[in-house]
Amino acid sequence: GEPAKSYIGALALLGPRIPREEAERFLGEFLFTGSLDNLVAAGVVAIEGDELVFASEAVRQEASRLVPAASHASVYRVAASHCGGTRAALLWLDAGDPQRASGALEEALWTSAEQTVAELRLVPASILSPAVRRRHAEALIECGRYREACDAAGGDELLLARAERRRGDYATALMRLERLEPSCDALLLHAEVLRLLEREAEAVRLLERCEPSTPDERVRLDYELKREYQRFLQERNRDRSDSDGRPDRTREEIQDWAHEHDLPADEDGVQFPDVRIEYEWPDGRRDVEDVEVTT
User: Fold this and answer.
1) pLDDT digits (tens, 9 = 90+) for 107-162
2) How far is the C-alpha of 114 from the C-alpha of 48, rounded, in Å?
3) Which residues contact 9 (CB under 8 A, 6 or more apart)?
4) Distance separating alpha carbons of residues 232 and 249, to the nearest angstrom
5) What DSSP line would sit under 194-229, residue for residue?
6) Which of 16, 85, 234, 289 has its CA 20 to 30 A from that of 274?
7) What is the DSSP-derived secondary structure letter of residue 112?
8) Residue whose C-alpha is closest to residue 152's, from 179, 132, 172
9) Residue 135's closest CA among 290, 115, 124, 21?
């Protein structure tokens, strides 16, 4: 009957596969007290295990048109509150609430750069917040779509420099980075570009100024420090045809390098901690504690 069609249409807004409990909670907001089994329709929607499943995406889209026009906005708002990511954003848009649509995208969790690009292609750029615009541009860079990334960056100098570095335009990226405020993110990229231009000493000096504030920055700085350490160990072997590849640094030299970089060292070499905990004392003094995970 007509009520059943309306319920099926509302459920279609939630996606092609809906957990049974979620479907029941959703329909409960429309005072539905029956069984989902009563909504099963051959060739349209079925119950498979603990899920309500539409026959195909085309069928689901057609079913979504069963929502009565008079109830459109209110049903879409309720559906949006039961979804997340791009689906929620599109529902909020259809309900006439672009602000809530933008908020849904900020909370979205995408698992890859490719998925981020694909999902954000479905929504108008006008509702993207600065944070989501940045995620979009970063994802485009990861996908090698540098021209689109520059368009999506919206004038963000660091993102533009990252795109230029990735497409091999090191000179332009360097000029842009030299104009930026020296955040850790900018310093890491700046050092990377300098190394690509074989300006190692300048890169090292920049890294010494880097104070990471996010897990990602700590991982990147740790990688750069390990890379710098290997260059330090192998420096005397460079351009030597008779080298066997073994570093000939003395224990004292290694200890000095570790001390300069505020890292522990033992007789086996420099120890890079698994975790570095940074904290501040009540009197304002800052300190760190290195932790090594043992298994």
Assistant:
1) 999 999 999 999 999 999 999 999 999 999 999 999 999 999 999 998 899 999 99
2) 30
3) 63, 64, 65, 66, 67
4) 8
5) HHHTT-HHHHHHHHHT----SHHHHHHHHHHHHHHH
6) 234
7) S
8) 132
9) 115
CA distance 112 to 238: 38
CB 247 within 8 A of CB 237: yes
> Under 8 Å CB-to-CB from 165, ≥6 apart: which residues?
173, 189, 192, 193, 196
Which residue is it, tokens 């304002």?
284
* Token pair for 202: 């300048």
- The answer on pLDDT for 258 being more than 60 is yes
Task: Give the dihedral sign, CA 180/183/189/194.
Answer: positive
Tokens of 166: 């990735």
What's the distance, CA 71 to chain centroid? 36
DSSP category for residue 268:
T
Q: Which amino acid is at 27?
A: L
Q: Distance between CA atoms of 76 and 74, rounded to whole angstroms?
A: 5
Location of structure tokens 């929620």: 88
The SS3 of residue 106 is helix
Query: What separation in angstroms does the CA of 153 have from each of 72, 137, 265?
Result: 35, 5, 42
Please state the rounded mean pLDDT for residues 30-39: 89
CA-to-CA dists, residue 205 to 108, 192, 194, 201, 261, angstroms: 38, 12, 11, 6, 11
Nearest CA to 12 out of 73, 63, 86 is that of 63
pTM (predicted TM-score): 0.69
Contacts of 197 (CB under 8 A, 6+ apart): 170, 174
Q: In what order do the strands lie in the sheet with 45-48?
A: 17-19, 51-54, 45-48
The answer to whether 110 touches 104, Cβ cutoff 8 Å, is no
